Amino acid sequence: MSTTQEFNLLSDRFRTFYPVVMDIETAGFNAKTDALLEIAIITLKMDKLGWLHKEDTLHFHIEPFKGSIINSDAIAFNKIDPFNPLRGAISEKIAIESIFNMVHKGIKIQGCSKGIVVAHNAHFDHNFLMAAIQRAKIKNNPFHPFVTFDTAALSGLVVGQTVLAKACKAIGLTFDNNQAHSALYDTLQTANLFCELVNRWKRLGGWPLNQIKKKNKGILICF
Description:
Elements (H helix, E strand, L loop, with lengths): L2 H11 L3 E10 L9 E11 L5 E10 L10 H7 L13 H19 L3 E6 L2 H15 L6 E8 H8 L5 H7 L12 H21 L7 E3 L6 E3 L1
Parallel strand pairs: 1-4, 4-5
Antiparallel strand pairs: 1-2, 2-3, 6-7
């Protein structure tokens, strides 16, 4: 199979969307007022047999934007010191520009039309991403403005668990609670989970769709 045909497998699988797994760590729950502190993404690829795999990774510690709120409860939970100089934090703008460059490149190579955020409780991460993009005033946003793939919802359907750690364990993946709530680790685990959910559906015969036409009535039935 040619390289182009392999790439088209990913494009065809998700309606030309390019899945980008993401986790964002923050200093609160309000995307417009609370600081974004850490972001990681993992892009995905599909091999010539249609199996989904992790590809490239980006991870950044982020400087709290000017005037942002730092909630003590959030900091106690994720154990991030926003002002520790050893974090090597960069601005939202620099981080987002780097993410955009990687996603735009992947979209072009894979023959896709738009990036789509894949995250656990994706509405949260998507809101913070879009708020940061608006603050940074960066144009040519590659991400869909509202559609996401939520691994919490998908895991609830497939294994009956919505918490990331429990969903990973239920589907047969390891999970280290000591590393949880790091953007890089949670993105890695979410990517592993999403790939396994998609690949398990394929192993069970759910993809590719088998299309059967009823000869008599000409009705297309998809299973």
